[in-house]
Amino acid sequence: MKEHHMGKKWILMMAAQFSVGLLCAQDLKKAADTLFQKELNEVVVTATRNERKLGNVAVPVSIISQKTIQQAASLRLKDILQEQPGLFITSGFGAGVQMQGLNPDYTLILVDGEPLVGRTSGVLDLNRLTVGNIRKIEIVKGPSSGLYGSEALAGVINIITDKSYDGSGQVSARYGTYQTVDLNGSAGMRFGKLGVQAFINHFRTDGYSIRPFSVERSKLPISRTTPQLQLNMPLGSRTTWNGSVRYNHEYIKNEITVTNNGLSTVSNGRERNRDLNISSTLTHQFHKNLKSSLRLYATRFEGSQVLNTNNGAGYDDYFLQQFYRAENQTDINLRKNISLTAGAGYIREMVNSNRYDDKNSRKDNDVLYGFMQAEWKPVSSLVLIGGLRYDDNRLYASAFSPKIAAKYTVNPRFSLQASYGRGFKAPDFRQLYLNFTNTAAGGYSVLGALEARETLAQLNAAGLIKQFEDDYGKLASLKPEFSNGINIGFTAFPVKKVQWQVNLFRNDISNLIESRLMAVRVDNSQIFSYINVQRAYTQGVETNVKYLVGKGFQADLGYQFLQTADKDQLKKIKEGNYYFTRDENNFSVPLKRSDYIGLPNRSPHMATVKLLYEKPNQSWFVNTRAIYRSKWVVSDRDGNGIYNKQDEFARAYVLLNLSGGYHFRNGIRLQAGIENALDHVDAINLPNAPGRSFYGSITYQFKTKKK
Amino acid sequence: MKKQIKWIGTLAIAAVLFSACEKDDAPVAIDKTNDGTFKVFTEGNVTTVQNLIADTIIGLNPMGIPYGTGKFTFFSLENKRLVASTDSATNNWDIAFRGTTILTNSGTSGPGNGGAFVQVGTFDALTTISNDSTFRVDAVPNYAIPTGSGRGWYNYDGPNNLVTPLPGRIMVIRTANGKYAKLEISSYYKKAITPSISASDDEKLRNQRYYNFRFTYQPDGSKNF
User: What is the pTM of this model?
Assistant: First the structure.
């Protein structure tokens, strides 16, 4: 309750400040400074599946430029996303991204508009992606299933790779703490009409151990290699063909010693992950107002983990996911101020894994979908967008995803935008087919929903089930998870050299799929499966202030306030006499609404402060980036089944990164930096964050002269 | 905070004074210094029991499942002390503990007139046992206090291998001699410290099966506390 009030007060305060800003409007045209203007004119594609100026897009979009990535010296996608306001990097099953308080499962990750597959427990490991050849990253917040289908429930992150065929290229090398080496090379040119760009990245690290008294490494030794080839071919004046092949190979060494009741088990293993993405796009401009493109895409992710132990209890895990898609998108300009986008496609998805049963038995699904979107500009200051998409799935219920959005530019200093969208996430193969048993002490099993009923019935017939739980009765075919999301915000230039953006969001999620206890075996080990149970919401406000302090000096402040709740839990707390916690003497006391936290692993407050100085002639720069995250709940210590203030929290922290670089005129660039300068280490809750580390890098950019 | 320290201090002094005329160990109201030994002490009508050993784990079977000696620890709510297992067939004990299983001196467990049920609420809020409440008796494999995660008095978190007493669960107990008591379990771990989720399985298993609880026994036979 207290938090609620605080949130409201804060919003009121901001609104008041903002109206003062508007009242003292002076020189309207000069207000939007050139740098801001440049940004607003930047073209984005993810929000509408069409090229639109950022300033004309009605949904919350942010862009991370190549320069920002380079100056932050990011290596993997995780490194740069963790510096964005409102995004938090989670650390179970690789690095995932939490957007608007929603789990990594609900953010669609695209490379040049095509989805990546190979999630583990719903998490797509952001470390799999190098940022060496990224031209920019577009982040769209709010449900975008109306355009992109499943997974685009919290939002979409689209990585747009560099496609230069102009004879330019670069090589770079970086070395840092933990023997971390990152090498990049790229070059692009035209052979006749055919544009060819080749890129390769190699990354390796020794990993590190941040657990005291342990030889076990928090981060394992890893090597990754990513080559990519991009092709461009104009076929006549109206037709273009683009092709891309990307491959990523990842190898992780794993040596661990587990001690259980005095018995030590020594294990050594390896994990190998391979991604392949192939795409082909043919675009034809039939008429100046009619463009159509045919996209073919194939991707596969193959992961295998082998662990050998000295007690014979090894581990062998295999996972192969394949995804094929054919899609047509047609864009029509009906009139000067109305444009239509329509499309349809077919997806075939296949998975083989010994997590389900036999790795030779293939699970598959087919999806047929169609979408449509209309954009209307009744007057130049108003953009209205309406769209919808229908996904027909063979394995589970279909999904219908509408979206509407509007942007109104009141004056050059102030624009308002609002959007509503419905998002969905289809049940994944794990939730349908998983068959996993942990044999460690207190062993348990997790069964996919499609086969849980049958498997449990068989176990029961064999006399192996001691008792069934209430949730067993709820086992049914899974439905997609749905969300209704609203985003309302504004962009303002309240005073000269200042840009201020605010976005209020609320996501109401239903049918959330959760693993629940279904039965207990006679040996007391537990069996879980998946059912649609939860209803939850996430809501909050995100704000960003950019201030051009002086020539070359820029300050950037970001902040997100977040509240979440499981609606059924909230209802029971309000009814009373259902949830209890314990006081400092371990005595039971009723749980108060103000003690309720909501969903776990979420920080109510997150902030970023970035200061950048760049010499106006761009010869050198220095920057500092501080990322703050308030404490977050990690476990249900009092055993009451929900998360409250009496539970276990991870400590709040500030991640401080510094970097600086010098450009020589001959194309050589030197850069050095410190990451996690404050040395915040939390081995349990932040296993992906090493202590303070240092690096230096050298880059050579070249451009051949045209003959 | 200061007020609280003062309050604890007063209680501690009172406890020390009180203990002078008691035969038991030196009782302290909130004994956070207890090194893990079994202690019983009474404050007014509330008796606190610390570190009651309930068949601690002595090994793992070949399947990796922990086991103890299999013996119950018997306790008398009336006399506020342990009862020898040789007295298991008498009315000298009221409840017994082994792992997460709790017996009442009733039905298949003993000759007594015992029984129990679990009530949702707080210890202090339970002032009267309502007349329409039903006491269950032990009838193997079902017990008056149900076993199983989320069914009786505890929650078992399988993936993290931790047992936590459910907050807000009060055991209403009828003793062997037909008197009434209310009982709240506060911890299943030694020193009443639940290991962190990140602790080793070894640590989790070594420190479990230590009961910490408090109870009020009504000697006059009424259902009021």
Answer: 0.86
